[in-house]
Amino acid sequence: MKLATWNVNSLNVRLPQVLDWLRANPVDVLCLQELKLADEKFPLPAFQELGYHAEWAGQKTYNGVAVLSREPAGDKVRGIPSFEDPQQRILGVTLPSPAGDLRVICAYCPNGQAVGSDKYAYKLRWYEALRDWLSAELDLHPRLAVLGDYNVAPTDADVHNPERWAGQVLVSEPERAAFDALLDLGLADSFRLFEQEPKSFSWWDYRLNAFKRNAGLRIDHILLSAPLANACRACGIDKAPRANPQPSDHAPVVATLEL
DNA sequence: ATGGTCGCCATGCGA
Hints:
Layout: E1 2-7, H1 11-24, E2 29-33, H2 44-49, E3 53-57, E4 65-69, E5 74-78, E6 90-95, E7 102-108, H3 118-140, E8 144-149, H4 162-165, H5 173-184, E9 188-189, E10 203-204, E11 216-217, E12 220-224, H6 226-231, E13 232-237, E14 253-257
Parallel strand pairs: 1-2, 7-8
Antiparallel strand pairs: 1-14, 2-4, 3-4, 5-6, 6-7, 8-12, 9-12, 10-11, 13-14
Helix pairs in contact: 3-5
The protein binds one DNA strand through loops.
């Protein structure tokens, strides 16, 4: 079973690339972030033609998340319960698997803009609410996967130029502590369960030829609860779509589970 | 030292 995540930076613009990628990579589950479209504009028929079901939480212009799956999803949750937020960043679903139900959460964590800004404070508050909610979700669902754009590079190994990035948004200590608090719940960063190429990243700024220079960060992650981490056989980043014309600034991340 | 690119939608803003 393959689970994947991809921040597409506008599903309107990226739909053909997402469809191409799914045809070449027929994963069981694909979590999408930054749809940037209203609910009524979600292109469900295009995904149905490829044999996928879909659930989504959209809004005009900003944010927006979706879960595509081979099997129909149940028990849908939109947003972090008890965290009032007009920004559509969270979608949780339950999916069947040979090992029993799988809880899949698609997350588009706040960017934070700049350390010390209002958006940075919102990011840290949001992470705290996420941790509290995931703690409860883990009690309910032993097989939990949280996939998405976390907007945090967990360690300096996830940063192309740690000296220049030190203390900046996406790598600052409070953000890393907020991310580590998710791992402390018992979730594993599936990418780090395996040997990986040095300088592996999932996001490259559109500016300054960042992709050509591999000047990136690893901020898209697949976190797995212990039973799923034990079943995880591989995790990798597919850089190919980032080299497309009109690419998203993020690459897909894929985890392979033996369930 | 500064600005650089996208996508939104028509202007600056968010990333």
